[in-house]
Amino acid sequence: MTNPDTVGLLSGPEGRRARNPSSRRPYLPRTVGFAGISAAMVAILVAAGAPTPLLPIYQRNWGLAPWELTLAFGVYAIALLIAILVIGSLSDHVGRRPLMIAALAVELAAMLVFLFAPSIGWLIAARIVQGVATGAASSSLSAAVVELAPERHKKLGALMTSMAPLAGLGIGALFAGLLAQFVSDPAFTVWLVLVVVMAAGTVFTVFTPETSSRKPGALASLVPRVSVPPQVRAFFASTMPVVISAFMTMALFLGLVPIVMGAVFGAGTPLVGALVAFVTFGVGTVVSAVTTGVRPHHLRLLGASATTLGALEFIVSVRAEALPFLWAAAVLGGAGLGASFSGITRGLVPEVEAHERAGLFTAIYLVGYLAMGVPAIIAGQFAGAVGVTSMATGFGIVIAVVAMVGVVVTGTRTARRRKAHAA
């Protein structure tokens, strides 16, 4: 998820100076920069999705317990959240390019730790570093993509930032799953490829033109600001069940399904779990792209409904040990993700002033990434006590209940608004 508050366009003399930096360094054309930074943004998210099919391999090679795998997943979400809270708006003060270079360099360091990780402790450390890098990159890369987009196609930049998160996670899972299927040492190969990609991205960013001028207040911007403007507090509260169930669905297909595939379905290859994740996030990307004309409250209702049905299908698949139901859960869950994210952002953004968006989206991310990381860690602890089947069933029940609350709350709010307008 990117920070929409940072996706702003510069204009006037200040913008022209930012787009025409000093000639002391040969900068790439803006169109080339747009393509390269878009690729870097997708690559960061591909790397975030890559561990999904590799988790069963680590579990088999190192004899890991389920809670160790879910811990490795959960700490990523928490580290990402902390990075967004602390440095999410830093690029507004120091410029896009310095933060992009730093974020990609930190991501490169994470890929190197993954590459040579000898134990679960190092794997967890790599996930923490990766979470920090992804959080640092989310605002600066998304802002730069929009600002570097060709003047005649500014919507292309906004489309990239909205579609990249879900698409990147799905592509990352598929990429790692295919390598796991066809190479002898998939973990090493996956991270080696990503080391090369991140190194290239870091070098490329050095020669990308700056799109934002510096301004004072960099240190002050490091203080987390979580605020919900008074005019949207009731609205914000009504979206929380949708936010929580959507992020828990992401945790389910990225962090728990790989464990379920082996323990419940006896899948002998990580490719199946990777394909399930790819379907989930691929469907989410498509739904997000094709529903731009649907009203936000309808999208939230659709998203919460699809998430509920997807969670129920997942429960049935686990209890019946039937893979067809898991595929159905992936499709429905993905549709719920795409519709929910679009409905939440498109519904909230027009209701607040520009200067209020940073605090608002920080509040959304605070709830969302906690819902993504903490339940996954807790679920891993329960797996050892009650078994993977019972743990997965319980996780699905929680998602279904929370999403159903979202359906009821969204439907009630919509009905009240219709009555108010009719009166």
From TrEMBL:
<feature type="transmembrane region" description="Helical">
    <location>
        <begin position="69"/>
        <end position="87"/>
    </location>
</feature>
<feature type="transmembrane region" description="Helical">
    <location>
        <begin position="158"/>
        <end position="182"/>
    </location>
</feature>
<keyword id="KW-0813">Transport</keyword>
<protein>
    <submittedName>
        <fullName>MFS transporter</fullName>
    </submittedName>
</protein>
<feature type="transmembrane region" description="Helical">
    <location>
        <begin position="271"/>
        <end position="294"/>
    </location>
</feature>
<dbReference type="Pfam" id="PF07690">
    <property type="entry name" value="MFS_1"/>
</dbReference>
<feature type="region of interest" description="Disordered">
    <location>
        <begin position="1"/>
        <end position="25"/>
    </location>
</feature>
<dbReference type="InterPro" id="IPR011701">
    <property type="entry name" value="MFS"/>
</dbReference>
<keyword id="KW-0472">Membrane</keyword>
<dbReference type="GO" id="GO:0022857">
    <property type="term" value="F:transmembrane transporter activity"/>
</dbReference>
<feature type="domain" description="Major facilitator superfamily (MFS) profile">
    <location>
        <begin position="31"/>
        <end position="418"/>
    </location>
</feature>
<keyword id="KW-1133">Transmembrane helix</keyword>
<dbReference type="InterPro" id="IPR050171">
    <property type="entry name" value="MFS_Transporters"/>
</dbReference>
<keyword id="KW-1003">Cell membrane</keyword>
<dbReference type="GO" id="GO:0005886">
    <property type="term" value="C:plasma membrane"/>
</dbReference>
<feature type="transmembrane region" description="Helical">
    <location>
        <begin position="242"/>
        <end position="265"/>
    </location>
</feature>
<feature type="transmembrane region" description="Helical">
    <location>
        <begin position="99"/>
        <end position="118"/>
    </location>
</feature>
<feature type="transmembrane region" description="Helical">
    <location>
        <begin position="388"/>
        <end position="409"/>
    </location>
</feature>
<feature type="transmembrane region" description="Helical">
    <location>
        <begin position="326"/>
        <end position="348"/>
    </location>
</feature>
<keyword id="KW-0812">Transmembrane</keyword>
<dbReference type="InterPro" id="IPR020846">
    <property type="entry name" value="MFS_dom"/>
</dbReference>
<feature type="transmembrane region" description="Helical">
    <location>
        <begin position="188"/>
        <end position="207"/>
    </location>
</feature>
<feature type="transmembrane region" description="Helical">
    <location>
        <begin position="27"/>
        <end position="49"/>
    </location>
</feature>
<feature type="transmembrane region" description="Helical">
    <location>
        <begin position="360"/>
        <end position="382"/>
    </location>
</feature>
<dbReference type="InterPro" id="IPR036259">
    <property type="entry name" value="MFS_trans_sf"/>
</dbReference>
